[in-house]
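Final report, results section. Input specification for complex C-07:
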Amino acid sequence: MNADKMQEFAKARRLFPHTKKTVYFNSASYGPFCLPVEKAIIDNLKLRLDATRDDTRMAMATGEALRGGYAKMIGASKKDVGLGLNTSFGLNVAAFGLPLKKGDEILVSDLEFPAIIYTWQAAAQQRGLKVRVVKSSNRCFDIDALGKAITRRSRVVSVSFVQFFNGFKLDLKEISSLCKKHGMYLVVDGIQGVGVETLNVKRTGIDVLSCGCQKWLLGPQGCGFFYLSEEIRDSLANPFMSYLGVDWKMQYSDMCRYNLTPFDSARRFELGYCVILNLLGMKASSDIIGALGVRNIQSHNHALLDRLIAYIKTDATYTITSRLEARHRSSILTFTCDDVRRLYKAIIKNRILVSLREGSIRVSAHLFNNAADIDRLIKVLKRFPGKR
Ligand SMILES: Cc1ncc(COP(=O)(O)O)c(C=O)c1O
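Structure output:
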């Protein structure tokens, strides 16, 4: 990365007040707020307290800007993107909307975050589908096992872009090729990768992607977006039709019109009015990500984790539990040791926020982190009393 870009990252860091006190490596749990998010939300709170003008048009315009911004982030068109409430929202659109028949099979991984599992289990129960579990290998998604699990009834593969507990980034292109070959849909939970790992949904051949904005996208809880490929959009039933799924052409003075046309876009799958505080927060944080660029954020995050990996490799106390091949790397790195709970407590005590997941310390590096943050963590690892 060139010096100018590095300056931009240093400048972005200053927008995150927590960096003065805390080392935050926990974006895989939820993202911290930055000052522009705070300002956007507080300004709207004030506007609502003063109640001097109607902010409906601003809300609509912000929604439009967000659909366009997220579409750009994932290589889609604005028409393909709708605003949801979280990751589960878009997964439900797929699970209850895709044209599936009784007996059709949904293939999921045995080490999946529960959002995919519970959603498809409910859809399976109501629609007579069957959820089948594909066994992982060495705690990572196994494409060969997926290939072997496919039967003539298999219609959907539903997976996370990045595995939540060890940061394993799936090769979605490879999975999508398999899906195309067998006439299956690919439904992706994007929350652990979108915004920090480059992804082009069209080139990759994803049918549905859903992503909450509360983690790597650094927005408030309760907001997200979903992508529906143009090819499948019109074949999807709409599980939640709302009055804002039709095109009012911004004319809200005469509302008793019941024959308006649904949007010819993913927007018709949205569910009524969004929380404007959320929209404004999402816009403020996505602008920062957009300005830095996902590719640059990815390089920045991976370089920080490289620094940690280099240390861990020299210290026999610790074992890396993430896979390190370039195509499976993400902004999450995990490692463990004999007494991992004790280590977790030692790290937290030093005001470094990480997570303990499935027996490993999970470190999530993001755009506001820097090398000094990594060095603070390394210092704790060096002094850990439970060292071998
Ligand atoms: C892979 C994955 N999917 C989904 C979620 C959250 O789902 P939602 O945005 O619906 O709350 C998480 C974390 O909370 C996650 O790690």
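The chain has a mean pLDDT of 96. The radius of gyration is 22 Å. This concludes the modelling results for the funded period.
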